[in-house]
């Protein structure tokens, strides 16, 4: 299925070849991904989950007031739009290999009709593979939207996904359904562990990475993951958030 979908979704440019997330979700529903979740190393996974709960819970408590202020600013800059925004993402595959979609939360950094505009912007895509990136994205709300995207502040509500057990603080970034339908067998290996708020990619080149570089980084993390590496990546991700280096 995925080989055919990759060809259909990458053939040509523009809205006529664009596959929406809703269409991709319907195609992925109930399908066997061909990979199985990595559920070994119970001790490591226990420590990782405990750290996720403690760290994300503390962060949510500390960020309640600043988050409320940011919500007020977003509402002022985007009248009529809610300050929080959710997207369907694909998490760790189920035990039977079927895809696991979930709602991932963000602070709103784009205009309310950003998803509807995406099909017409495909010809301007600057990223390779299934990814979509534009340096001067016309959908971004000027000022506050550009700032919170540059410093990944828009990603902070994903701490709620961490508390819910859908994500981890560190892991491969969860792909959009329209991206996942284009994954080859190697890229699907990203789906055997919980996705993360940050990771090797976020602590490195971020938006400057190619799709294949992102895959290689994520698979390297999965193979060698451990408590000390996770702690180092938490620090590295926070540093990249502060500097905003490599983001657009």
Beta-strand percentage?
5-15%
* Contiguous runs where pLDDT drops below 50 for at least 5 residues: 2-16
H-E string = HHHEEHHHEHEHH
Alpha-carbon distance between the termini?
Answer: 32 Å
- Rounded to an integer in angstroms, the radius of gyration calculated over CA atoms is 18 Å
Give me the side-by-side strand order of the main sheet.
1-2
Average of pLDDT:
88
Number of strands: 4
Structural class: mainly alpha
Shape label:
globular
- The number of distinct helices, counting runs of at least 4 residues, comes to 9
Main sheet record: 2 strands, antiparallel
Helix content: 40-55%
Structural notes for this entry:
The chain is 43% helix and 8% strand. Helix 7 links the parallel strand 3 and strand 4. The chain is globular and about 45 Å long. The two termini are 32 Å apart.
């Amino acid at each position: 299925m995925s080989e055919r979908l990759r060809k259909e979704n990458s053939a040509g440019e523009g809205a006529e070849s664009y596959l929406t997330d809703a269409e991709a979700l319907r195609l992925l529903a109930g399908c066997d991904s061909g990979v199985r979740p990595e559920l070994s190393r119970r001790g490591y996974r226990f420590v990782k989950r405990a750290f996720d709960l403690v760290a994300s819970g503390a962060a949510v408590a500390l960020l309640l007031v600043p988050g409320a202020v940011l919500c007020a600013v977003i509402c002022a800059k985007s009248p009529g739009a809610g300050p929080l925004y959710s997207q369907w993402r694909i998490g760790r595959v189920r035990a039977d290999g079927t895809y696991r979609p979930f709602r991932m939360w963000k602070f709103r950094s784009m205009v309310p009709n950003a998803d509807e505009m995406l099909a017409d912007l495909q010809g301007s895509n600057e990223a390779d593979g299934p990814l979509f990136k534009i340096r001067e994205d016309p959908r971004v709300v000027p000022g506050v939207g550009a700032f919170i995207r540059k410093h990944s502040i828009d990603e902070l509500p994903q701490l709620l996904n961490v508390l819910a057990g859908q994500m981890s603080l560190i892991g491969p970034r969860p792909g959009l359904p329209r991206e996942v339908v284009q994954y080859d067998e190697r890229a699907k290996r990203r789906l055997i562990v919980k996705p993360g708020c940050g990771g090797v990619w976020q602590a490195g080149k971020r938006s400057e990475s190619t799709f294949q570089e992102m895959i290689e980084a994520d698979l390297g993390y999965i193979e060698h993951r451990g408590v000390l590496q996770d702690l180092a990546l938490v620090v590295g991700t926070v540093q990249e958030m502060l500097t905003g280096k490599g983001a657009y």
